[in-house]
Amino acid sequence: MAGTQRTRAYNAKAAGAVNISEAEITFSAAAARVLVESLPAGAVILRTWVEVLTAFNAGVSNLVTMGSGAIGAGTADDYVATVTEGTPGTYPGVITDAAPAAALAAATDAYLYYTPGNSAATTGKARGFIVWARTAANG
Amino acid sequence: MAGTQRTRAYHGKSAGAVSISEAEITFSAANARVLVDSLPAGAVILDAWIDLKVAFNAGTSNAVTMGWGDIDDATDNDIVETVDETTPAVYPGVVLASAPMAQLTTARDVYLYYKPGDAAASTGQARGYLVWARMAANG
Fold this sequence. Notes:
The structure holds 2 protein chains of 2 kinds. Chain A is mainly beta. Chain A contains no helices and 8 strands. Chain A has one domain: Jelly Rolls. Chain A is elongated, with a radius of gyration of 15 Å. Chain A starts with a strand and ends in a 6-residue tail after the last strand. Chain B is an all-beta fold. Chain B has one domain (3-133): Jelly Rolls (Sandwich). In chain B, 0% of the residues lie in helices and 42% in strands. Chain B contains no helices and 8 strands.
């Protein structure tokens, strides 16, 4: 695993409290993922984004995303899909004030993913953020 | 100082919890600032806005902003920069769902600022709001 879970939700067990969770991923030779948070059924995600701190230099198609599922899963970009991996900056997710997401129908492990491209990476560091809340009935 | 710090972060010391901080500033004869909150290194700012309650009537160039730095500092509008000081309304900051703000690399004292214009003010009241979270590693 090339990275680490950094900030865990302070009120993860408390329905109605807003939390933020954070993980960091760095470049790697193989595809990798780092757990951002284990979200309960019924949770609502309020906002997500990725901040690229150091450019990833693994050529074409080296990818940083945030979502759920196995490495290589089609759901790996459900939360943050569009990142310019070669340019440090902040990249918003698909969930915004203008486009809220449905409450989670099932418990979901949210990950930050890295997929190297067509050359060997020697640099790259990014952090992923999820603002979320547990709701009363947990689904 | 023309104003007061009103709401302090409930979870200001707790990584992974989301808090809101608030301050109020009123018209004054000289440049002024009021502390909204002292944010640690590594904090993320999720949202910010100014609610202009009473129009400021100090003529051209009277300015209300939110950010950091000394009074007269050019960085005083880092977080909220576009306010029509003569029209009571809510004015969003530069931190939006579509443009997340980078993690703070150093601790920042965030202030609400007022700069009078080319006439003496006799009215003016505004409140600034900051939604933010401390992160685990604090940078």
